[in-house]
Amino acid sequence: MIETVTVDQVVLCLQEYCSGLKGDLFSLRDIFVKYIKNDDNYKKEWADYLGIRGLNILCMSKTEDNFYYIMTFLLHATKKKEIYKALIQYCMLDESISKETKYYLYYQLVGYNFLNPEVPDNEIGDLMDDLYSQIYQGYKKEFSDMMYIPKEKRNRNFVIAFISQVLEIEHGPTKTLLDRCYILEKYLRKKVFIVNTAEYLTWYRSIPCFSAMSGNYKEEYNQTDNLIWRDKKLAFMQCPPEMPDVAIIKEILDVVKSEKPWFVLNIGGNSIVSDLCSNTVPTLTVATVFSGRTTTRGQFQIIGRKITDADRKWLSKHHMKDSAMIESLFTFSFKQQTHHFTRKELGLPENRFIAILIGGRLDQEIDSECMALLEKLIAAGIFIAFMGKFDQYKEYTDKNSLFGENTAYLGFQDDALAVDEVCDLYINPKRIGGGGSAAEAMYKGLPVVTFDFGDVGLGAGADFHVKDYDDMYNQVLRYATDKDYYAEMSQKAKQRAAQLTDSKTEFMRVVHVMEQSEEFK
User: Fold this and answer.
1) Residue 323 and residue 369 share a domain
2) Is the full-model pTM beyond 0.70?
């Protein structure tokens, strides 16, 4: 039976851990007491929270594993920057865990960043970059015999493409991978070999973390040697889930050494495998969160916005020129529409204005502030549809019958364009991702309401930005009541979507820019 851990036990445990640590860097007990214990009401709520989750922190056991469990628990529960920074710094200083375990912890924080974009700041970003550098250097020491292959000795007709996770065709990064590889084969006449490195949210040599995240691994891909996209059959292999394992990486590096690709294409960044290959041939990294800078040690990366002073600072830190970042409009490729639904077939009302929210993480992205907006819109007569993963939907409908009567949860849909076709408007909550689903909606003429940050804000453009949730509420009502305005913005959405789907022109331009660079040697 798992015991219920009390607040006093946690404080005692943290005090014991902190007493053996250096300096003031890990004053966890002070942080914990300041934010939690001094508030008696919060203290009871906290204890109830631990009991409900059946949380066993193993307070009396002094192991480093338990330390990271407690730290990640505190990070998730308080979302305090002090804890975040201390966790990263301690991980870098900790000599008792392997580089593989540090990579596991690094990816847990990458996942946390994506779900909690309001928490990281510039200092945390720099610390995360330093942690990745330490891990990368640890792996690099294992391969001291790597030698760079000059341009004249590489095969200009062959490219290796790496991605850290391959899923269904509806998966945005998977579509980005197939789209870029298709262009390389179809229009640039290069043979492409795709490798799923299985690094994303790796569990290789993991240790206990609170609310630990894991990547998805599709075993069926182990039985195929190709991926089909449109009229092309793209060569493919998938690494085993025990990645990044040094022995498997060596096999990949040996292939790069023997086959001498013109360059390596990496989708997503945060890839030790891809970055190690950059010591042998040039690497071009495509960020899947294109509104931000990706983590890579490769020679080139595509950035979906203007380069900033912070980017230049990062480039200087890694001894790179501005030309290492190639500014580009991030483009999308959609799964072909094969259905035409009626609203009735989807369980949607015939004569209502329907706004849709789409995402694979709606439980996290629809926070209390966003839910307050949706309830306000429902009261004003707007019907809300949800598509994707929203496990908490039933909890909301059970608590609020009005919410249940004026919303619909469609789950994941194989034909997103067919669903967008019967809706009126795309609402984007505060988040970093969502760019692909917004582009699909705009392609079907749905205006977008979004904040000016993240992938949707960048992709949709300034015409569709709002300042805050109050502004979003007013804008949704204007779309619902002003037919002329709606028609004007629907046309703008289609025009923007046309730009966002011209992958051929834009990606070919990027490859040409890279090939003309002095660093592509």
Assistant:
1) no
2) yes
